[in-house]
Design brief:
Length: 124
């Protein structure tokens, strides 16, 4: 299986494909709507006639967000606390991870930024 490294919105690979598949919320790694739209264009350039572009994407859990609150926990366990914070205007989600280090018991913080998209936005 050949591998190409690059930006999914702009990288060109040789050939045409019957399937272009973005798994596990990958589209949210593109942080603007313009970048996400360009990814659609790039996928279309790589599809053979009749090919399919499939995106696996969850819907943000905003129903759990009480009015005025910007954070929703998704895991609270002994070694890990995880919460997502939302900017509703910019459609940005930051996933925060606090993981207890086994050696000294201190927490390590990691985070990742994502731009969530609504199903209607993906219907290009």
């Amino acid at each position: 299986l050949p591998v190409s490294l690059g930006d999914m919105a702009t990288t060109v690979v040789p050939g045409e494909f019957t399937l272009v598949y973005l798994v596990y919320n990958t589209i949210t790694n593109l942080l603007t709507q313009d970048e996400q739209v360009e990814c659609f264009r790039n996928a279309a350039r790589h599809l053979s006639p009749g090919g399919r572009f499939v995106i696996e994407l969850g819907v943000p859990p905003l129903r759990f967000l009480p009015p005025g609150q910007v954070a929703v926990p998704f895991d609270v366990s002994e070694p890990h606390v995880g919460l997502d914070t939302f900017d509703l205007v910019e459609q940005m989600l930051v996933s925060h991870h606090f993981t207890r280090d086994g050696e000294d018991g201190r927490y390590r913080r990691d985070y990742s930024r994502h731009r969530y998209a609504w199903p209607a936005e993906l219907d290009l």
